[in-house]
Amino acid sequence: MRGPQRPPFYNPSAGTSEQAASAALPHGRRFAAIADLPSRYRRKMRFIIDNVALIAVALVSGGFLVWPLLRARAGGPSLGTLAATQLMNTREVQIVDVRAATEFGAGSLPNAKNLPLPEVAKRAGELRKDRPVLVVCDLGRRASLAAVKLRSAGISEVYILAGGLQAWRAAGLPVAK
Hints:
The chain is an alpha/beta fold and about 180 residues long. About 45% of the residues lie in helices and about 10% in strands. The protein has two domains: about 20-75, no CATH class; about 75-170, Oxidized Rhodanese, domain 1 (3-Layer(aba) Sandwich). It has eight helices and five strands. Strands 1-5-4-2-3 form a five-stranded parallel sheet. α7 (about 140-150) links the parallel β4 (about 135) and β5 (about 160). The longest helix has 24 residues, at about 50-75.
């Protein structure tokens, strides 16, 4: 029968683990081994060491969950269909559809102007800077990118239609062809 399992770096001729570890450190630097910690910290450190892969996966997956929220905020404020119709009814809104011309031809919001996403930065001068802009695409992803470009072109009041044209159609609102 074998004795207790030792870590692969264990060297019984080196003395204590602290002596073995401090031999690799510069002179005068003290190495604090886990064994030197009080028992309550030892359990926590052992848990962290034993589960470092699990902890890393949890942190990465949490980052992936937060990333879409951060990206959505980067585009600026988004409006649901109700808030968008209220804005359209109370103010002179410029509606910009950033989908390709073929998608735009299949239907868009009434009075929308087609500025495909690759052309938004070049054609931003066609929009009035003193009026709000509602940016529309199919789902809202391209609209977020376009909103950033429009803001950098000097248009301060830019909104994104949350859910895009799909949300607009799902709400039963009119679509112009």
